[in-house]
């Protein structure tokens, strides 16, 4: 960052927008001097931003409970506070003093969506967020910190469910279209064979009809090309749909830890195979 001379001062604010929730090492090299300096002091600093730096404390206490993931852990709330302080960039450290639960209200600095972390003294834990990927990252981070080898959860993400249903409907339509196109191509190939024979016969017996048959062949050939383009488009759309479906499944599996994650992927693939 090189500010113009008109904006030189004792303070410099630089916005940082992190695209993903991963720890980031920031290397800072600052040149410090007075206004007309010919030489500057060089200060170098390396600072690591925690994984969930793009979430800030929220003032309000509104709670949207439509999208959430719920699970149970056996961990003291004091340890949970340590995890929060290590993985979030907060003005002051979170401390648990008393009460039956710990609840933290946060807001995403990327899209202003809410994130609420609820930790009950009994072990019940709920993350309220519309972002499935964020919920998965939070669970994996917490499981790594607490060294959980097995974790089961139940989740509700209506928007992701709607998206998954839409993608499955698209795949079903593509499958039906592929079958129809396959039948249509088989019919047209039969017509082509018939027209080729007729065109060759007319070349010998009725030359004036030969052009008519070749015109029909040309029309069918264009229809076959159009059918091929449709199949190619369907293939591309189907591939992208499958990528999106697999992405949702992978994110959903990361809401679990250990064999539960692998079992969830297996059940989802079986359901897709059975068109459920």
In total, how many beta strands? Answer: 8
CATH class of the largest domain: Mainly Alpha
Low-confidence parts: none
Distance between the termini: 53 Å
Rounded to an integer, what's the Rg over CA atoms? 31 Å
Helix content: 40-55%
Number of helices: 5
Average pLDDT: 88
Shape: elongated
CATH topology of the largest domain: Methane Monooxygenase Hydroxylase, Chain G, domain 1
Structural class: alpha+beta
- Indicate the proportion of strand residues: 15-25%
Helix/strand order: EEEEHEEEHEHHH
CATH architecture of the largest domain: Up-down Bundle
Strands side by side in the biggest sheet:
3-5-6-7-4-8
> How many separate structural domains?
2
Q: What's the main sheet like?
A: 6 strands, antiparallel
InterPro entries: Bardet-Biedl_syndrome_2_prot, BBS2_GAE_dom, BBS2_hp_dom, BBS2_pf_dom
GO biological process, one term: non-motile cilium assembly
Domain BBS2 platform: 62-146
Domain BBS2 GAE: 1-52
């Amino acid at each position: 960052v090189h500010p113009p001379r008109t904006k030189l001062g004792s303070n410099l604010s630089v916005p940082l927008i992190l695209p993903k929730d991963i720890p980031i090492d920031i290397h800072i090299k600052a040149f410090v001097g007075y206004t007309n300096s010919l030489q500057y002091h060089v200060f170098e600093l390396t600072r690591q931003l925690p994984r969930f730096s793009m979430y800030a404390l929220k003032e309000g206490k509104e709670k949207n409970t439509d999208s959430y993931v719920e699970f149970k852990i056996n961990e003291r709330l004091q340890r949970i506070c340590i995890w929060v302080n290590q993985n979030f960039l907060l003005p002051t450290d979170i401390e648990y003093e008393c009460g039956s639960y710990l609840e933290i209200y946060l807001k995403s600095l990327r899209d202003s969506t809410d994130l609420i972390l609820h930790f009950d003294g009994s072990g019940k834990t709920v993350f309220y967020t519309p972002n499935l990927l964020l919920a998965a990252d939070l669970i994996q981070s917490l499981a790594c910190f607490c060294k959980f080898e097995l974790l089961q959860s139940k989740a509700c993400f209506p928007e992701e469910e709607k998206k998954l249903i839409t993608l499955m409907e698209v795949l079903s339509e593509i499958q039906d279209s592929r079958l129809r196109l396959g039948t249509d191509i088989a019919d047209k190939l039969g017509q082509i064979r018939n027209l080729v024979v007729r065109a060759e016969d007319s070349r010998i017996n009725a030359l004036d009809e030969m052009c008519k048959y070749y015109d029909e062949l040309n029309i069918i050939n264009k229809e076959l090309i159009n059918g091929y383009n449709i199949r190619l488009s369907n293939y591309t759309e189907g591939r992208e749909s499958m990528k999106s479906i697999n992405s949702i499944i992978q994110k959903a599996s990361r809401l679990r830890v250990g064999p539960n994650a692998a079992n969830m992927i297996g059940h989802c693939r079986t359901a897709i195979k059975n068109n459920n």
